Amino acid sequence: MTDKxxxxxxxxxxxxxxxxxxxxxxxxxxVILLKGNGKGKSSSAFGTMARSVGHGKxxxxxxxxxxxxxxxxxxxxxxxxxVDWHVMGHGFTWETQDKAQxxxxxxxxxxxxxxxxxxxxxxxxxxxxxxxxxxxxxLDVQPVVDAIKKRPKMQNVIVTGxxxxxxxxxxxxxxxxxxxxxxxxxxxxxxxxxxxx
Length: 197
Ligand code: ATP
Ligand code: MG
What we know:
It is a single chain. By secondary structure, the protein is of the alpha/beta class. It has one domain (27-187): P-loop containing nucleotide triphosphate hydrolases (Rossmann fold, 3-Layer(aba) Sandwich). The chain is 42% helix and 15% strand. The chain is built from eight helices and six strands. The chain has helices at 3-23, 41-54, 72-77, 93-96, 99-116, 131-135, 141-149, 166-170; strands spanning 31-35, 59-63, 83-87, 124-128, 156-160, 174-177. A six-stranded parallel sheet has the order 3-2-4-5-1-6, sandwiched between helices. The longest helix has 21 residues, at 3-23. It is globular. It binds adenosine-5'-triphosphate and magnesium ion.
C-alpha cells in the first residue's frame, strides 16, 4: 500500500470513528459481564477496578466464592483506602461439599451486595463469581437483576463467572466472552503466584 492510499484510508476511518464517538453521549454507569471458560475474567475485573482506583474512585469487591486466600490482588487492595474487599464464600462446592453452608454464605453475601447497590459513595462494584450462585441455585436471579437496575446512576458493576444467567445478560451493557483456546495447566504447568493468584 502506498503512503497516499494509507493516508486516504485513515482519513475515512477517522471520520467513521469520530461519527461513532459523537453519537455516544450518554453518561451513566454500566453493567459489565465477563464470562466464558478462558483465563482472564477476574483479572480483567480487577484490572478495570485498578483503573478506577487510579482515578480516585471508590470500589468494593465481593468474592462470592472464596478461592485462594491470599491472591495478589487481595494483598494489593485489602488495605487501600478506596477499596472495600469482602471474601464471602467458602470455596467451590466440590471442596466445601456442604450445601446448607454454601447457601447461607451466598445469602449473607447478597445482603451485603444489595446494600452496596444502594450506596452512592461506591463508583464501582465487582461481584466476582456471582453467576455461580445462580447456576447452583443458591440465589434467585430476579432480585439481583432488580437491585442492579435500581442502583445509583453512575455506579458501575462488573460480574464475573464462567456461565452467566440470561436475565443478567439481558440488563448488561457490555458482555465479554473469554474463550479458552489453550491453558498452560493442560500443558502440565503448575498454577503460579502472580499468574493464577
Ligand atoms: P483469572 O483470575 O486468572 O482472570 P478467571 O477469573 O478467568 O481467571 P476462573 O474461572 O475464575 O478464571 O478460574 C479461577 C482460576 O483458574 C484462576 O487461577 C485461573 O487462572 C485459573 N483458570 C482460568 N481458566 C482456566 C482454564 N481454562 N484452565 C485451567 N485453569 C484456569
Ligand atoms: Mg475468576
